[in-house]
Amino acid sequence: MTGLLLALLLWCVLAPRAIAAPTVPLLIGDTLDEQGKPKPLNPLKRKLLDALEKELNVTFELHMYPWARAERYALDGAGLIFGLPINADRLHTLRYSNVAAYNNLWIVTRSDASFSFNTIDDLRGKAIGIVRGYHYGDEFDNARHSHQFRTDEDIASRGTRLTRLMLKRVDAVLLFQPSTQSAHEVETEINAYMAPRLRAIGPAANASFSVLPKPLSTDSGVFFAIARDKDDGIIDRINAALARIRQRTPN
């Protein structure tokens, strides 16, 4: 009887640990406030990660870094990375999942300094505010490296970059938003977000923000990725989980 009680006691102590969801390190680019402090994860991203955790029976252990550092750690095999765009070089070293979500890349200007945009060449001679260490697609990078325009790289603080736009330090700022939003919806959201900050800017805040009707890129995918020599099947499991989630999600 004593042995049975001891066995039951050990089961009660050890069983929860045995069935606990395994932890999976997940690297992600940080989003900062104007003071450079990390902001909470975007609600849409959090919802996606929560759904995947349930499907995979894992717990994502988030590690938020500037994008350049997050990419370096991912290449070193520190864990999955979420949100790192695809380019040719990364495909050699990282294995990417299927598309997990879609974004549009919008061009934001001051309302009194808007311009017509149809192709990347329309950015010629302008100063464009971007997040330091991020990648906005091969076409943008090629035009940037050929000096068609100048980039102003800043921390991952939307408020800081939009403030620099209002102060005329740049001509435009690039912002990713979910592809379900229209240019007008993005513009309304940005102006509401920046309203209290504009009051602090003072007389220089003598305009509002405009989002150009045509995004710089449409439906640029958001992916998970992992170093190719560290993929133990997790990418295939993520792909299957994403497919199941989409089957249950109404169109």
| SS field, number of helical segments | 8
The largest β sheet comes out as: 6 strands, mixed
Overall spatial form: globular
Separation of termini?
Answer: 59 Å
- DSSP summary, beta strand count: 11
Mean pLDDT: 88
Give the % helix.
Answer: 25-40%
The unreliable regions are: 1-11, 13-18
CATH architectural grouping of the largest domain: 3-Layer(aba) Sandwich
Q: Could you state the order of secondary-structure elements as H and E? A: HEHEHEHEEEHEHEHEEEH
What is the CATH level 1 assignment of the largest domain?
Answer: Alpha Beta
Could you give the topology of this structure?
Elements: H1 2-19, E1 23-29, H2 43-56, E2 59-65, H3 67-75, E3 80-82, H4 88-93, E4 94-96, E5 101-110, E6 127-131, H5 138-145, E7 150-154, H6 158-166, E8 172-178, H7 183-201, E9 209-211, E10 217-222, E11 224-227, H8 234-248
Parallel strand pairs: 1-2, 1-3, 6-7, 6-8
Antiparallel strand pairs: 3-11, 4-11, 5-8, 5-9, 5-10
Helix pairs in contact: 2-8, 6-7
Protein name: Extracellular solute-binding protein, family 3
Keywords: Signal
Signal peptide: 1-20
